[in-house]
Amino acid sequence: MEKIEPSVQLQQLILAKQAEHITEGKMLKEHFHNTYESLKPINIIKNSLKEMASTPDLKNMAVNAAIGLTTGYIAKKVLVGKSTNPLSKIFGLVIETIISNKASKNADGIKTLGGIILQKLLNLHKPSETA
Hints:
Elements: H1 6-38, H2 41-53, H3 58-80, H4 86-105, H5 107-124
Helix pairs in contact: 3-4, 3-5
């Protein structure tokens, strides 16, 4: 068996470590670039929107929130009207908030009731067929 000289062995180890250093440097630069890109505000917003769009219940939650807000707003308008009294306005905001929360939690019942009312309204406007 031939014995490898220490200086040749050292040179081989140095070359191996230099190649490893170059490879790790490239990987580090790539990781830094990816991190930098992901921390840009526009990319944060894009990623958040993609994440929200992939949520399966998002459409249902948006509809429930819209129903709650609309119901609360209508209730406030019915109860307070165009009053200029500051206490009435505060009362209206409180009522709007309470009804909005309750309505968004019970949106399925409101959808059902709305469907029934809409069906009855459509049936009222249908001309009756006489033979």
